[in-house]
Write a structure and sequence with these properties.
The longest helix is centred in the first third of the chain and has 37 residues. The chain is mostly helical. The chain has 13 helices and no strands. It has one domain: MetI-like (MetI-like fold, Orthogonal Bundle), CATH 1.10.3720.10. Helix 4 runs parallel beside helix 8 and helix 8 packs antiparallel against helix 10.
Length: 281
Amino acid sequence: MSAWKSLLRSKTGAIGLVVFCFIAMAAISAPVLAPHSPEAIHLSQRFAPPMWLEKGTVEFPLGTDHMGRDLLSRMLYGARISLIVGLCAVALSAAIGIAAGLLSGYYGGWIDTVIIRLVDGFLAIPTILTLLVVLAVARPGLLTLILVIGATNWIAYARVIRSEVLSVKERDYVKAALAAGASGLRILAVHILPNVMSSAIVVSSMSVATVILLESSLSFLGLGVQSPEVTWGIMLSDGRQFLATSWWIATFPGLAITVTVLSVIFVGDWLRDRLDPKLEA
């Protein structure tokens, strides 16, 4: 109950959660809500404007693109890809980063040295550059995109969790468990991991927004999810050359990306205020 009261006191957190849940439900319900197939072509309705503009029709509420495809349907199905990539890639990077941070912080020695050198290596190269190089060589697709982003986005988790573990492992209850003969893996799983998960949750909430932006950027460049799959990034790429005459083709997916990212950031800010012990002091 205290968490809900805290959320209600945070206007931005509550708004962000409501908006994100609305987008998620719309994405899940896309087959029901979409008035047309996202790939259905209506050549006679090319560049149809939104229904509230002159020559707009209720049949295509947000208008159509250069091939006569319904924008609302494509927006709904595009939300699925963005959320799937965002959540799955973050889950993968969190698993890798948390494991690396736990091992590095608890065992130290050569394990810590190797992981820190890997972190330094990844930090030396911009993430987007690494993604561009790997995806230019690998076969583009949804699974490839999730794996590549997940495998290159774990650095923040490793650094945060390592610093938390260095502090937690010096506490009395950890030393007592060690004196009682508990193994290192048991101490990590039972005594340390639960006490660092709040930091991991905060990092994850902020990473979802970053990954959604990365997916949209890579799809816009043609290195992410490929047609016939629909993504907001592909829709942006399709509509950029028609901004002067048919602004709605690129504007609506751009707004969707912006609203989704902002909603995730708002929820992340609330989670940080709620879970970060340093801010409570």
